[in-house]
Amino acid sequence: MSVPYDTAYEPPESPEPHSPEEHLERLLGRALNSFDLPDEVLTRLGSALAHDTSLHSAHHSSGLHRETFRHTWLLADASVLTLWELVHNTAPGSAPTHELYADEEEAGVATSRLPLPPDPPACGRPVVLQLPADTEPRHAYVPDDSADHARRLLRRAENPDGDRPGKSVARLLRAAFAHQITQAFGRPRLAGEVRMCFSLYEHAFLLFDGGETSLWEVEHTLTPDGRHMCEVYDTEEAARAAMERRARAWTREGRTRG
After folding, report:
1. C-alpha dist (Å) from residue 10 to 14, 20, 53
2. Nearest Cα to 212, choosing from 140, 117, 125?
3. Positions of the region Disordered (predicted)?
4. 155: Cβ–Cβ under 8 A, 6 or more apart, which residues?
5. Residue 217 contacts by C-beta under 8 Å, 6 or more apart in sequence?
């Protein structure tokens, strides 16, 4: 059963009123990942004047449940800061697990990894994955720890210095919810046996806001010892140009050795 955003469910804490400081202490004390919160966020919360908690979304089915709570503080400089608490019982033993995030997208990524379906639209508020009516995804995406897949792909890339996707790409892919891997063909400008040393793959990602982006993986064995090597680029053009550069360099080296 999906619970609408104006549900009467109460936050997972006692009803007695308490100060913003006490409220924060309770959150940090029960969250398994409180140590991951940025120090800057905790420093800013030290000046909190007031706070409010509301249920953002929830889902209950087959004995499993999860709720996402929005905890908002008014700070002394008149700014507002929000933490997102994910509560679920999908861990072994069915005991409630609490997780705390400073970013709504990070909370969404954590929610997508649970064995529960996303919420349908409720109270006029669309689910973050809802695409515009006139937009169709370019790929048949599969939700499967896609943000982690992107991190592992970037981590194993051995691109030359200054020739790899930057930090902005890595940040964007933290919001990846689903992905698809396909082998890319076409425009084979490499000749002979050199062409056969390469494989080109598109790793396409669907983001929580409905956007799509891709990483392009080049696999080859044109290394001095024949070792398998992986390079990753943020455009197909950059990936194919890298393939051609490596092929030309390999051919020149072979002729020189010969």
Report:
1. 9, 18, 9
2. 140
3. 1-21
4. none
5. 153, 157, 200, 201, 202, 203, 230, 231, 232, 239
The residues, any chain, with a CB within 8 Å of residue 14's CB and separated by 6 or more, are: none
Model confidence pLDDT, tens digit, residues 61-73: 767 888 889 898 8
How crowded is residue 157: how many other Cβ atoms within 10 Å of its Cβ? 18
> CB–CB of 56/70 below 8 Å?
yes
Coil/strand/helix, residue 236: helix
What is the C-alpha to C-alpha distance for residues 138 and 123, in angstroms, rounded to an integer? 29
Q: How far apart are CA 91 and CA 98, in angstroms?
A: 11
**Whole-model pTM?**
0.48
Q: How many other CB atoms are found less than 10 A from the CB of residue 225?
A: 5
Tokens of 21: 């400081």
First-to-last C-alpha distance (Å) of the chain = 71
DSSP 3-state of 87 = strand
DSSP designation for 125: B
Tens-place pLDDT, residues 4-21: 333 333 445 544 446 888
115-172 pLDDT tens trace: 876 554 433 333 333 344 444 556 777 767 788 899 999 999 988 767 889 889 998 9
Q: Which two tokens stand for residue 84?
A: 């997102």
